[in-house]
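Most newcomers find our protein records easier to grasp once they have seen one. To make this concrete, we reproduce a full record directly below:

…
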Amino acid sequence: ALLTAASAFAPAPAPKATCSLRAASDWIAAGYDEQLAARLVGAGLDAPTPIQAACFRALAAGGDGVVHAETGSGKTLAYAAPLARGGRRVVVVAPGLPLVAQIRRVLDASLGAAAERFVVATPKQLIANRVDDADVVVLDEADALLRPAGKYASAETKARKRERPAACLLY
């Protein structure tokens, strides 16, 4: 399964199935199990955001999806909570270390022991530390991960690109 959490400024590709963004009165009404709902309420999250309510059932059922919402809307928990069910091993790829740290904080605070099944890394970290036993791959900020270093890249990024080998294979 491939899930993307695109930024608010990137066009969202059409998902296979759509979910309506309707508010849920609480975590249970959105489909979250009682144990996770209690953990989230204990962490100070009284009710899911619209994106969290819309995503849970579809992603928990194992479907592919595109999670597209504004920054700060709760996208990380929207994809992580359903993926934490069923013992799946998840690799989350993020474009930079600050986002890796932010995702890790959200996972640890909200998922407890289930957060241990999530590997969160930058592409460079994944190359250095081969991860080959993932059930699910999440591209967080997919637009940034897939954008070539070019017109909008910083001078530093362009210089690093020239220093890299012509190709890098991941297998």
Observations:
- The chain has seven helices and five strands.
